[in-house]
Design brief:
Length: 340
Amino acid sequence: MPTTVLVTGGAGFIGSHTCVELLQHGYEVVVVDDHSNSSPESLERIAKIAGRPIAAVHRADLRDRRALDAVFASHPIDAVIHFAAKKAVGESVEIPIAYYDINVGGTTALLSAMHAHGVHRLVFSSSCSIYGDATKVPLTEGDPAAPTNPYAATKWLCEQVLADTCRRLPELSVLALRYFNPVGAHPSGLLGEDPRGVPNNIMPYLAQVAVGRRERLSVFGDDYPTPDGTGIRDYIHVMDVAEGHRRALEHLGDENGMRVFNLGTGVGSSVLDLVAAFERACGRPIPYEVTGRRPGDVTELVADPTAVAKAWGWAATRDLATMCRDAWRFQELNPSGYTG
């Protein structure tokens, strides 16, 4: 089992929660993050929750090969978990070149550095968005990819790069985790989703409306072919996602090559379902207005989590009420985010 893990994007939402999970299970953790959409404060809170520090933090852009080489040369890295990427669907439509440059370019640079330094184990942060506007749910890993926006396309392209590299380098072991919609926060309230600027994801926006930082939530479309007209997603607690990444590390040694797993609950909730659940969690109404559909969004994405359950004996356990409760606790304790 790997003992020293490099986590790219370790100060971000999913990365920070995964660092806690790893530290609490005895791993040494090295973080690379450029803080373009994260706060250094999260790294201090990781250590506070875990009761032990991160081994090292390097502020760097993954496309900077010299900086990457220095990281690998400085630490006995056994495996890598790769989160670092831009991740907003709407923004990706506006600046597609930046998404390909950062997401794909960062991944290829990381792969090259790993190969040069003899590191052969990687867990890749993929996305359910690669399935596109699915014609059926729930979605299995064998369903076709059909990205509808540049963000999703970069994740699909990265998967293809990884698969091609595994075919060329038989010693490489890669697990690509296509997780659905991570939400929630650490139950302590110390860690959560605190993006820079206006949130692109619904849960932090909901929380900021509830705490008074935003006037109202925009619901992008109520004319989808769903029971209430709003899009349906498979929301999964960020601590379940973090646990899934730790379990992936444990199974990297099962076999070499490229393997893909969905991480989801198998339960779909509409936007209005989520609003109602968050209102129950925070005890106050959430004002919202319906606007037009957002470019690149799809009707419904729900996971079939059977494959990972069979392979690892693992499943997500936290429900939507817990996701909303924990997200609200973080926002209530940190009304202005990490820097407030």
